[in-house]
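Worked Example 4.2. Read the sequence first, then its structure tokens.
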Amino acid sequence: MVEVKKGPAKTDATVRVANFNEIYSDFKPTHASHQASRCAQCGVPFCQHGCPLSNNIPDWLRLTAEGRPQEAYELSAATSTLPEICGRICPQDRLCEGSCVLEQSGWENVTIGSVERYINDMAFEEGWIQPIEPEIERSQSIAIIGAGPAGIAAADRLRTLGYKVTIYDRYDRAGGLLVYGIPSFKLEKHVVARRTDRLAQSGVEFVMNCNIGEDITFEELREKHDAILVATGVYKARRLSVPTANPTGVIAALDYLITANKISFGDDIADFNSGKLNADGKNVVVVGGGDTAMDCVRTAIRQGAKSVTCVYRRDRANMPGSDREVSNAEEEGVRFEWLSAPKAILDNHGTVAGLRIQRMRLTTPDAQGRQGIEDIHGAEADLPADLIIEALGFEPENLPVMFNEPGLEVTRWGTLKTMAGEFQTTVSGVFAAGDIVRGASLVVWAVREGQDAAADIHHYLSTELLAQPANDDVTSLPESLHAGAAE
């Protein structure tokens, strides 16, 4: 009998909107094996090419189908430091599963993400994942600024190589946007915590509530460590560019999501208690079409919003977010206003009263096949709103100013500039990876760049610093390299 596509069980919408639990269950062993057996084991693995991490997908699917989950896990972990997280939150429909030969041939794709989650969750449950024990201990130390996915991925690889690693982060909990940006109904926080706990057990030091440039200077970090990786992500919110008197009730998506996640930890947040960052009983309008917008609308539903509407200037086929997330939002009662752009914020004596939207239409595709948008003259509508959430994307903060390090050059987009084909910045010994280099992007790309940056740092510390000209004074080397040079 030919197996048909069947994903893991999903909690019914009427039940899941009452809590913040993950909505998908893990596969059962037989179910995972049957679904993995659907892989065609094609000669050219398009799924692997569609994965930013180039995961060995057909191989670990075959091992899962054969009932060899530990070997499948080991193969999965060889290319990814956060596989069970990527299995939960990657937009597989646009990556590996969208590239699956079965999908392209008119059959439904293999449920790659769910199998990836299954084998790696099992690895934790069965004790296959243990603290890192490096084969050698090196004397050099590395500072990582940012405890998000890029920083965690780099720390994992660098500690495995035997380096001393310290992660500095502005927040009180490690995980970055995995903890504070992504809601628990997509990624429960214990899943992130077991990864950061493993790093701590492996000897990685975490320095939390630490703002570089304030609590410790960037120059002090350079003196203390042999190399630095900047993996801060991008946190500066883009704002609506419409006529407004800046009324109360217009908030940034990240402020809203961070507060919601802190509440889930049991924190006492004044802006939530006052209603400023709480959707309970309100008409909520979220502007944007990415996954952050979907996180906001689905969070608002769970907080008890009176109504939730998402406004996006293009149609569903052209939105940047995952179609799966849109479907989940629709099931949960979110209304979508496609081909609509914000035109003005309506206020009532300093408080938000609504959002005026301009209806749009798609134009003829350009040479790259991308359709533009244009106004439909005279087509406007007013949406009631007590809370407007701006989910328009993120931009980099001004790190050269924040860190008081003018040597850090930035691109015209404000991201850190790195050497061509490398992760080293314009400051010697300082590297950068993740969103702070590529701009706001996917977690899987942050993981990939964190891992690659770790390899770049290892090469730098192993070769470049030791290859000094003959007339160089050895005392110019960082102190830790005097001892490490004999390794």
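Now turn to a second chain, presented in exactly the same format:
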Amino acid sequence: MVPAFTPLEWLLLAIAALAVGASKSGMPAFGPIPVALFATVLPAKASTGAVLGLLLVGDLIAVRMYHAHADWTILRRLVPSVIAGVLLGVVVLWFADDTAVRRTIGATLILLVVLRVTFLLRERRTAAGPRSVPRGLAYVFGPLGGFTTMIANAAGPVMTLYFVASRLPVQAILGTAAWFFLLVNAFKVPFSVGLGLMTWQSLLLNLVLVPALVLGAFGGRAVARRLSPVWFERIVLVLTLTSGVYLLVRA
């Protein structure tokens, strides 16, 4: 049975599902929001499994939209290091309690904001525009992406940063990210089931929230066109930072 939630908690979960859909349809900056909202409503460890089911639905939609634009050279380069990061995340989830996981999620969100702001400042200071990421940095972004996606389902900003800095065209970023997260999230399923994070109860909750996710996916691009990209990113960064601080200091 689906757990009993208050109306406010259902509203937060619905907003989280909308954000999942929007993040998969062209607005990846929305990615950290579902993580924070689910960790607010559910126990921190259980929230990671509940979010994963929704992410897989969003990944299927994203692949359907952008499947033809993936850069498979970059994907193959990332695979070994991402797997290492996922396995490290499994170890942490195995030994950590809810408080430790919640604080790890909060710290991860804050780290993602710092990374994004650092990258934006780097672009602004470089007269020639953004530089390509050196090939060897796949071994930095890969483990970080694998760890953050396993521990908090929050690798979107990390990997989007890598894809953008790699000078991929917009369509290639969306296609590469779509396939990357579908494959990585599918790889995480056995571990999440084995850790007791993804359950029949969480899947039933996902089923209830899928309509909101689909609405977010197909409405996301329309909203993005009406909002200044600069202000959109600023709002999301502030919300992500606020969520991270809240989860970090919450008793």
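Notes for the reader: The chain has a mean pLDDT of 82. The two ends are 28 Å apart (CA to CA).
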